[in-house]
Amino acid sequence: MADALKIGVAGLGTVGASLVRIIHERRDSLANSCGRPIEITAVSARTRNRDRGIDLSGMQWYDDPVALAESGDIDVLVELIGGADGPARASVEVALARGLHVVTANKALLAQNGVALAELAEEKGVLLNFEAAVAGGIPVIKAVRESLTGNAMSRVYGIMNGTCNYILTRMEKEGLSFEECLKEAQRLGYAEADPTFDIEGNDTAHKLAILTSLAFGCQISCDDIYLEGISNITLEDIRAASELGYRIKLLGVAQRTETGIEQRVHPTMVPHDTVIAQVDGVTNAVALESDILGDLLMVGPGAGGDATASAVLGDIADIAKSRPGAQTVPALGRPAKSLEPYERARMRSHEGGYFIRMRVVDRIGVIAAIARRMADSQISLESIVQHSTNGGKEAPTKTIILVTHATTELSVRTAIEQIESDGFTVNKPQVIRIEKP
Amino acid sequence: MADALKIGVAGLGTVGASLVRIIHERRDSLANSCGRPIEITAVSARTRNRDRGIDLSGMQWYDDPVALAESGDIDVLVELIGGADGPARASVEVALARGLHVVTANKALLAQNGVALAELAEEKGVLLNFEAAVAGGIPVIKAVRESLTGNAMSRVYGIMNGTCNYILTRMEKEGLSFEECLKEAQRLGYAEADPTFDIEGNDTAHKLAILTSLAFGCQISCDDIYLEGISNITLEDIRAASELGYRIKLLGVAQRTETGIEQRVHPTMVPHDTVIAQVDGVTNAVALESDILGDLLMVGPGAGGDATASAVLGDIADIAKSRPGAQTVPALGRPAKSLEPYERARMRSHEGGYFIRMRVVDRIGVIAAIARRMADSQISLESIVQHSTNGGKEAPTKTIILVTHATTELSVRTAIEQIESDGFTVNKPQVIRIEKP
């Protein structure tokens, strides 16, 4: 049997600890599948004396991941530190420059520096694998990068943040408010103490940026993504959506349009009878639409120590199975130098259906005026629902819900501005885009 | 750029023709992704003078696929002939023996001769890829063989035959009989003139046998699969299932049990609110349950010329990206010699819930007697429904539907034998197993 593949693990958090434990427990079956043993020979973490429930004996210890990358007796650096820059980036750059293979679960690092790192890996003829960086345990990177080779992709979209999907699912199933569900998610460890990054869509955006590059052969452009989180989604939206046959999910969507590539992350209404609408809780789902294969949907765990470690292990196994220097899979599916510049489609030209919920003063002619404004913007309506008038001290108001047929973002924005300027609305209209498979 | 990878295509049916067309149309993007051009240099088919809408100029022609495998100027043989033996098997064996890589979409060949072919491929240090053989365009082979490396799998199941799923979906949505839907499927080309192989479950069994070996590290054992088709599923079953919150799908299921590995193909009731229950029409779905990653579900096109060609192309690309002789991925995930003998779990010891529908004479005490027989077999009932008595000339009868909690196949068979021997039933009771995610 060939020599062992020597692994250095930088970062011993939940994922790192799972990985060390699993590789130790499964050494024989791994060696059998990979044709050679897989051995963790060096590790690095901030604090040495902490009980992680794993046996680190026989492994070189490094306080500094860069030192591990520089001088560790390893073939592969597994980066599980996180962060777009700092020690994560430094250790990966050093490892690649040294001609080591790199496996990382770091979406921020790839979203910001992926193309440069891919170029470096190709120069050195080593692998840069990052299955765990997008949708955790779902092998979507492998699907796009390998299985779909030769396909022209038209759209990639998915539920890529478990925290948001958990919150939206709880809100719908139990009629709880966003705040209550967020607290619950934090209690269960599904959400960080500071949940901003998850609930405002940044985490989804990082993952989407990586997928967009793989799917469309363009450079990664994480800062050009239209971003809208779920924090202003109310129970009223969820109930109205359900009445109309939709469920609300936070989707990341990338699609090729005539004016360029659209990248957007926002709450989205999906038809209730679609498979993706049935994806609940912390589960993730990614849909890939391509011209030869057709539509492919993958559903699975998007986070968690073991699920993420499993994806990292798959990446390590791919390296173990390929002879040193033999592998020519470019990290981003095509040689990094051949990636086209990212051409951004303007959000105003986005086409699709829209759900619009507005609170208006209860006065004769309001609906007629609103309908006229829609018509002025060439928007055709699929349905219009008026909800019961409220009494109370203030002037009586009513809620009007509009669902449009396919139109453009610009038309919708224009119509709403006009309606607001007409003075009928009592608060900012809620607009949710509709995505159909 | 490296030399072109030379492909020989044996079989120019729908899939073969799609493959030739796609490789021609996408030569540049393929060369860019793979780091070398992919070129079809030789083809073989039964009839030469037939318009397939593709350009075969510049390709060596062989009437005999074995001759192509023997003497074609190729690096890879793509076998798209079909059949467990005959020219398909002969050409693949010759190609592997000659040290050529082989890509095949032939499930029957692998289900019957997969282990021997894998051994031969490993001896010669070449790749034997067969993504298209299971669930068409869904990259499930890659997921089990590569992404899940190191995972211990507990269950694999799925909808792997589009014909059956189309028929069951039509029956449910349009209230048509099995026969009407089969005719429709044949008219649309979803079903063969002789549909036996699809509707009796043999096609699903072939695919399941391959997945079982990959998932559990055992030898392929296609003839040990418990088999039940969909031809005796009636509208009455589908309606009753739906009343009880289930949908009926033809599933192939392989799972590890205490007494061995269970492989079964049969109509199955799945809870209505599960993702797999939403998979309609000719679409396929495969669920993989493993201990580290958790549950993974993949949904996509299970058949069709282009979707299948896309999977074949992915296999070819994997070969193009790896240096000759460099690849050490064993065809079945582990060295073929290390595969354990298949240890069959007896069907009678299968555990799960059951749906039982029986027509009985409308006589006082019948239900009590039936309930007693169930109790005698230690079967606890989840629900019992009695359907309206029929009038008519014959003696009045009624339909009784039982849904059991988890029990064993043996208990259910025993109870039903006793009920029949009690002389209450007017025709053979319908038994459908329930599968829960």
Automatic annotation (TrEMBL), chains A, B:
It comes from the Bacteria. L-homoserine binds at E192. Pfam families: ACT (PF01842), Homoserine_dh (PF00742), NAD_binding_3 (PF03447). GO terms for biological process: methionine biosynthetic process; threonine biosynthetic process. The active site is at K207 (proton donor). Keywords: Amino-acid biosynthesis, Methionine biosynthesis, NADP, Oxidoreductase, Threonine biosynthesis. The keyword tRNA-binding does not apply. This is Homoserine dehydrogenase. It comes from Martelella mediterranea.
